[in-house]
Amino acid sequence: MTALATILPKGTNCGFGLTLLHSVVMIANMTTRIEFTSEIIDTLNYERYHHPVPLVQRRMEALWLKSHHLPHGLIAKLVGVSENTVRAYFQRFSAGGIEKLKEVDFYRPESALVEHTTSREAYFRDHPPATIKEVQREIETLTGIKRSETQVAEFLKKNSISGAAKSGCSPPKRIQTNRPPISLRRLNRV
Hints:
Oligomer: single chain
Largest sheet: 2 strands, antiparallel
Radius of gyration: 32 Å
Number of helices: 8
């Protein structure tokens, strides 16, 4: 295993408007070697400020700093991520270039109820539920999937299945009296 020593002289511009005030010697045992053409460096420089996704901007910044031969620890500190994340950015770049850096893979878990959306929608249109609890019981009976009232309400709302079902009680009933409305009683006094 070879160690790489980098000497950064006083006055070196490190990006982010930072300039070193003293000479710094950095030694890194695990260095990813990546070759950068001038076109790639220009693209990284542009995309680190102009890409619409901040995560991609961070990736571009890390690679741009790497193209200026900064050590991984300093790159991680300047970009605001861990060294492992910096290495992951480098591996991503090595695997697919700049286009791979632009890919954004957000984790979006999907509910187990999604596969039942069509059948539940048809069922609830034919048998409109009165309450969320009723929907909750029906879903558990028909699919075997147990969900809280909040999750069931969110599922109904997200899939526009039923606007009729509400949690809790129905609104209070109007009390009927034999007295005339207030406005008529006032008119009779005058």
